Amino acid sequence: MKLIFRWLINTLALLAAAYLIPGFHVDTFYAALIAALVLGLVNAIIRPFLLILTLPATIVTLGLFIFVVNALMLWLMSTVVKGVTIDGFVPAFMTAIFLWVVGLFTNMLIHHAEES
């Protein structure tokens, strides 16, 4: 159930990011749904390898380079999913930060619900 909840929240977050961030576009709800699924798969499969490869840069920047890795994961997702376009690195970076904030609140919400 938590997985479906996270998928729906990430879908809505992608739609909100498309509305708020210039240069990030999502055509339809269906495209956002597929994009959230693909982004989850990319983050589960490819992101760990990239984090290991970029570990020195992440240490030097005190962890801030992870946002660059997240932006690259968004760019990769946008090349796979039709209906999602990113106009450059800055919109991808801003979207990565936005999705991080949404994920932070989602984790707090789920953690709070488990405690009750």
Task: Describe what this molecule looks like in 3D.
The chain has 116 residues and is mainly alpha-helical. It has one domain. The chain has helices at 2-20, 29-45, 47-53, 55-60, 65-80, 89-115; strands at residues 24-26, 84-86. It has a two-stranded antiparallel sheet with strand order 1-2. It starts with a helix and ends with a helix.
The coarse silhouette is globular
Strand order across the largest sheet:
1-2
Q: What is the number of helices? A: 6
Termini, distance in Å? 16 Å
Roughly how many Å is the radius of gyration? 14 Å
Number of domains: 1
Layout: helices, strands, pairs:
Layout: H1 2-20, E1 24-26, H2 29-45, H3 47-53, H4 55-60, H5 65-80, E2 84-86, H6 89-115
Antiparallel strand pairs: 1-2
Helix pairs in contact: 1-2, 1-6, 2-5, 5-6
